[in-house]
Design goal:
Layout lengths: L1 H8 L17 E10 L6 H23 L6 E6 L4 E12 L4 E8 L6 E5 L14 E2 L7 E2 L5 H6 L17 E5 L5 E15 L4 E16 L8 E4 L7 H9 L2 E5 L10 E6 L4 H4 L5 E6 L7 E3 L1 E6 L2 E2 L15 E3 L6 E3 L1 H12 L7 E2 L9 E3 L11 E5 L4 E2 L7 E5 L2 E4 L1 E3 L6 E3 L1 H4 L2 E6 L4 E6 L4
Parallel strand pairs: 1-2, 4-11, 5-6, 5-10, 18-27, 19-26
Antiparallel strand pairs: 1-3, 1-13, 2-9, 2-13, 3-4, 3-9, 5-11, 7-9, 8-9, 9-10, 12-13, 12-28, 14-15, 14-29, 15-18, 16-17, 16-22, 20-21, 21-25, 22-23, 24-25, 28-29
Helix pairs in contact: 1-2
Amino acid sequence: MKTTTMLLCLITMLLIASVYSQEQTAMRLDMAHRDTLSPNPSPFHRIEDIMGMDQKRLSLISQKIKTRKGGARMSLGSGFDFGSAQYFSEIMVGTPAKKFRVVVDTGSELTWVNCRFHGEGPEKLENRHVFRAENSSSFRKVGCMTKTCSEDLAKLFSLSICPTPRTPCAYDYRYVDGSSAQGVFAKETFTLGLTNGSVTSVRGLLIGCSSSSDGGAFREVDGILGLALSDYSFTSKAINTFGGKFSYCLVDHTSHKNVSNYIIFGSTPSSATKSPARRTTRLDIDLLPPYYAVNIVGISIGEEMLNIPPQVWDIKKGGGTILDSGSSLTFLAEAAYKAVITGLQRHLVGVKRIKPEGLPIEYCYYTRKFDDKKLPQLSFHFMGGARFEPYRRSYLINAAPGIRCLGFVMARDEGTNVIGNIMQQNHLWEFDIEASTLSFAPSTCL
């Protein structure tokens, strides 16, 4: 029914990237939601895709777990208008520099673009750009017989095929949502905008030249910006160049493509860092590499701390929690999920429930006349006392006119909890790698 299809539309988003200037010298990228990129998306297929990709992503995350020039910035915005469940940015690659729209993913390490090299790869793609390696004077392939290929890039799915010393190092990169990309590794120059309005070039960044890719996550985009923390990720190079931190602010996931904010590598605007609502907790970058892990000790609804077994949050006992810009919804281990849903349901008594057929979102309601203030504040409690209080629209999500859903999904496998991008929206998040801290504060992101 239309209601069901419209419901899925709500959970699709993206961030489109374009370079903006600021008075400070830091790099920033515009970020937009991916849903805004598809010309005629079907809401039903979008929600199906989102849920399918999120669940596969969580499963593989769990498996995987068992100088300074001021700052740089990239625009960041919601992709609601394009039918995607990711956030997008734009990067400038090669010499001369060419612009590519990429998914911003804190859960993957490899940055790659659709690419043609020595006759391999797409000639052209509808609504997408193709990087022509031979036309870039700064493109340097990684040889398959190098230590970089055989050892350092092994975790990035480098292939052992090496018929001649001149053969480039190949990869078959697999994502947690089931998507994949195939191509060759290279070192390239990226042109980045600084927060003072100027630009700079960063040389020697690892990039994937993808001759083919498969998966719904790549619709309407030219590649991936890998922001997980590892030796060869974009993040690693950026923080070495601009300073040991990066930050982003995710606009509301239903925002249109003309609304965006930034990813900033380096210093954060002083107005944000001095916010009285700013909270800081430990960022455990060594516990679940390459993901950004945090220590949650509990969840409360109103003044009531929910009865959730401590092992759900304990990384050493198979639990733990990460922040992931590549997941839309928030995944909780069964014990946490049931406690949260039961706690919120008590405040929705009398509100008519609807079960969208065929969808994994279990708890949706007709809320046309529902007053948000009747729903108590849900809070994530971090070790050390910091408390993250998302807006109610981040956990009672608009799905269709008059219909809203609780934005939680039970993890099919016991393991890592994931705070997705809808839960993170309308907050500024600062990842300080040098200090191993995560700071956050409410923000309009405008």
